[in-house]
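The freezer alarm interrupted the setup, so I double-checked each line after restarting. Inputs confirmed:
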Amino acid sequence: MTNSSLVDFTLYLADSTLVLGQRNGEWCGHGPVLEQDIAITNITLDLIGQARSFYQYAAKLIGNDCTEDRLAYWRNEREFKNGLLCERPNGDWAQTIARQTFFSFYQRELFTQLLNGSDSTLAAIAEKSLKEVRYHCRWSSEWICRLGDGTDESHQRLLNALDNLWPYTGELFIAAQYEKDLKIDTAGMSISWMTALSDLFAEATLPPPSLTSTFMHTGGKTGQHTESLGYLLAEMQYVQRSYPGCEW
Amino acid sequence: MNIPHTDQQERNECYHWLSTIHDPEIPVLSIIDLGIVRKVELLSPRADQGIVSVTITATYTGCPAMDTIATLITMELLGKGYKKVEVVRAISPAWTTDWMSQAGKEKLKTYGIAPPDGRFQRPDDGISCPQCGSHNTRLLSEFGSTACKALLQCNDCAEPFDYFKCH
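Predicted 3D structure, all chains:
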């Protein structure tokens, strides 16, 4: 295991949670009803909390007075390693729910693996985050059932959302070099992820998912992103870039 | 200010002072009630160099109150005569509602928040209403006004209420 692989992997975890958190945060004040506005922003809070833990660890590994803020606000698109799924636009509520479901189910598998992994800091962050991720999985699953097994319109919208986002899920299970170095078992994760999703889709009267049925986009883990990420970062980083070091 | 005779006495005194610091989001609970103070270490007694280290852990990773709580701890102990206060944030072991004191649970209920109930592994219908005690209640949302709470409503007295989730 090289230190740079550990740094890259920790940044991948941090960037993915931060970028999805930032996306979900766009719903603040715009949720379909107050309770769900609060729910999605609570999930955002958890994601950003997780991101902070990962960035703090990455900063410590990098040393040289690196800080979590430096990593979040002063890197460009090509340096961000988040999964492409996390940066996809919110779309309608169905698309946001589909994205959250794919990601929360993935986090559950990944964090369970980190919990038993060799790095004690990542294991500790995973242990704490898993408690939160279980809520997210439950909440997302309930929405998948409500939309999938709801009206014709909600069913159709969810199908559209799944079609839109599905090609961005395969990447999660294709190991980047730094994951290979750290012996992250992406293949094993994909099997249990798929099983859990299949059960959920059956309950929600949706057609079963298949990872082999379509072309999968890749690149996020090594910094090649869709055009959506740049806009997101521009908004998120604007204040720090304009007024370096400002605090409130 | 009386200088205690032993480190143990001085540490107890610190715990007492910390119990006067309240969670900014749920002000009825002290940080001791919540169980987020994990350790108080006297690195040097107050009468000597006066260095104390307090280890705290967040309830949820994104809890926005942690920075405020760390500042409040520092201010409180500096005010009691320490010259240096370190606040250490631990992630592991992960905080659990099992660490909340019985007194804390009673305070929550009196305040109008249903305390964590071990009989419910997840927020669900039937959690006791803090107003009238009825179990004829229903879950409105697993997410409430803070990360640690869910929202329910009582079918008998009709009052909506927060429930502090088991975690």
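Quick read of the result. Chain A has one domain: 3-242.
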